Amino acid sequence: MKELGVVTAILTSQLMDVIVNTLSKAAMKKGMNNFVFVMYSNAFAASSLFLFTFIFCRKRTLPPLSYNILAQLCVIGLFSCSNQLLKYFGIAYTSPTLASAMSDLIPAFTFILAIIFRMEKLDWKAYSSWAKSIGTFVSIAGALIMSLFKGQAVINNYQPFKSFHGKRFVSVQYEWVLGAVFLVASSFLLSVNFILVKRILREYPSEPVVVLIRLTLTSILSVPAALISEKDLKALRLGFNMELIAIGCSAIFVLSFGGVIYTWAIGKTGPVYVAMFNPLEIIFAVILGTIFLGDSLYVGSVIGAGIVVIGFYAVLWGKTQEKVDEESTVCSSELHNNEATLLLK
């Protein structure tokens, strides 16, 4: 029952993430500035989460914030700001569908980082380790295909994204590859964040406080970039339009409460388990992107996504088999101990 609650929370957060990606793409088509979007959405998210954190944590005894934890939170804030900017630039040059497809790389990146930081173990005598390793490399290969091979359009609704006041300076193919590179880098930084969050929660087990500090730092770090990117300060004013809707949904559903859900799930189950659900975003993204944005669907994306999903399920099978093997080992150990105790009597 507890695991079902974790799964439901993660899937709900992923659906909201895809909806916000779709809204942000629609706002970008109307001229929304990515730096301003990140600044406002994180500031609003921190404001909305502050009261909740105060009520939730006021009766809890928490350990003091050490310099080590603050330093790690600053790193998370920097990576989170960079991750969001890369993600929205990637969406601007490609589509929300490709952004969700590239998130399939997160399980592979997280698995590799978890091995490096000794959060995951490899036993080359076990099939589960082989499945996880091969699945990781297959996922990366699929992502490379999506990035470098576009192919013919299966569903052709392409409308050029107008950047820098409508003056296009690179070809459509170059934009697609550039956007894909941004999305790959964003996925990697998010995987690093998963690992760092797990390490922080071991010493400071308060998900709302960790998310609140991260949001505050991200909003502060994005202010200089937003001011430099917009020479006219009047452009920083918000009106009741698609931009405000996208910022509000991102702040409330993705960054604040969605961030708490992801952080809580990482603390309960680990970064690799949470990351394994990211490939399911592509289902939501294809439906929403095609219906509401008129996104095109290309052969390269279909083939690459299929390969990535195969790699994802190989990793998922490996994790499941590993858990079964661990439970079997524990049961065998307990049975052996019981037999030894009976013999002694």
Write the layout of secondary structure elements.
Blueprint: H1 2-29, H2 34-57, H3 67-93, H4 96-102, H5 105-116, H6 127-148, E1 153-155, H7 172-203, H8 207-229, H9 242-269, H10 271-275, H11 281-293, E2 297-298, H12 299-344
Antiparallel strand pairs: 1-2
Residue windows where pLDDT falls under 50 for at least 5 positions:
160-170
Summed up, the domain count is 1
Name the beta content range.
under 5%
Number of helices: 12
Arithmetic mean pLDDT: 76
What is the radius of gyration? 22 Å
Query: Structural class, from helix and strand content?
Result: mainly alpha
Describe the structure.
The protein has 345 residues and is an all-alpha fold. It has one domain. It is 77% helix and 1% strand. It has 12 helices and 2 strands. It has a two-stranded antiparallel sheet. Helix 1 packs antiparallel against helix 9 and helix 1 packs parallel to helix 11. About 3% of the residues have low confidence.
